[in-house]
Amino acid sequence: MTKTILRALAGETLPTPPIWMMRQAGRYLPEYKATRAQAGDFLSLCYNPELAAEVTLQPIRRYGFDGAILFADILLLPQALGADLWFVTGEGPRLSTITSEADFAALRPVHAIDDTLAPIYETIRILRRELPAETTLIGFAGAPWTVATYMIAGQGTPDQGPAHALKDGNRALFEQLLGKITEGTIEYLSRQIEAGAEVVKLFDSWAGSLSGADFERYAKEPARVITEALKRRHPGIPVIAFPRQAGQGYVGFHAATGADCVAVDDSVTPEWAAEHVQVSGCVQGNLASSHMVTGGAELVAETRRVVQAFSEGPHIFNLGHGITPDADPANVQLMIDTVRGA
Ligand code: CP3
User: Fold this and answer.
1) Which domains does the chain have, with CATH numbers?
2) Does the C-beta of 65 come closer than 6 Å to ligand 1?
3) What is the mean pLDDT of residues 141-169?
4) What is d(CA 201, CA 263) in angstroms, rounded to the nearest whole number?
5) Which of 38, 56, 73 should be mutated for ligand 1, with most atoms under 8 A from CB?
6) Dist CA 10 CA 278 (whole Å)
């Protein structure tokens, strides 16, 4: 097995960690902005296999990352389940909301998702033909809790208030919705793997707002159910779980879910994560994405710190969260050169 990301996921400690970056295809790159303009808008780009493959490949050509992440979005699954979805420029996603039994009943059955998502599988097939032999193709989906927060509120929310309100006010409906998203995610990721995704990642961006028993039931348990189902259907498929801002919740996450790798954000130090999370398996992370804006000696020092802290075990270098549109592409190169020791 030559692909370094797959080696790290199999538990190998490598002399230089493989590297990729969340949101590596994105608005900080002029070539991304050009292709997005050609597509018309973000969703048209997601559903155009040729152009989605093109933007996936752009950061691979420019930087030679070890991993390519499928260009798509976690909100395509709700759309495939029947939610209306649109993006307001400068603000973010908007969806029709699910707050009543009637809203839930109007969703489409899980088996219907491929009618909408077939172009995404085509993007993956193109990428498997066009990616360099050493580059690992990463598929992904949102974790059920994070997807539910958008489906319930109809938009991003600072504190996920509407989702908490439904969870606490009508737990039966909330759990039905989470169950449906969980089933849909298993089908969606299975299709991605059949099309050629070599790893899948579950983005639980809002896991940090769940605590205590809710974290167990709505972050850990769905990740466990999805991982188990995928590994049953596709033996050996590696899974990366990203319960962002989980803090102490990161401890034991590998064992509780069966994930091969736990991605950590930068609200924890790499030294803490090495001691408490990497002891249980591969970790991914966790340079603060702000360094891609500020650069300089601090970027170099903090990059070295992350590499050093995780050097005793399996590690995939990444940011703690997605790169932002105001990042300088030259800082990305500086981070890569620093990781690779140039
Ligand atoms: O990482 C990658 O390069 C792969 C593609 C990818 C996108 N979104 C493209 C995108 C991935 C893996 C995602 C995941 C995603 N999408 C998450 C989880 C990760 C995280 O960031 O916490 C979430 C919560 C979403 C939902 C979403 N999509 C939001 C809230 C927004 C608006 C905020 C923003 O950055 O504009 C998006 C839009 C989006 N998804 C963009 C991209 C490149 C920007 C769209 C544009 O070009 O205008």
Assistant:
1) 4-339 (3.20.20.210)
2) no
3) 98
4) 9
5) 73
6) 13
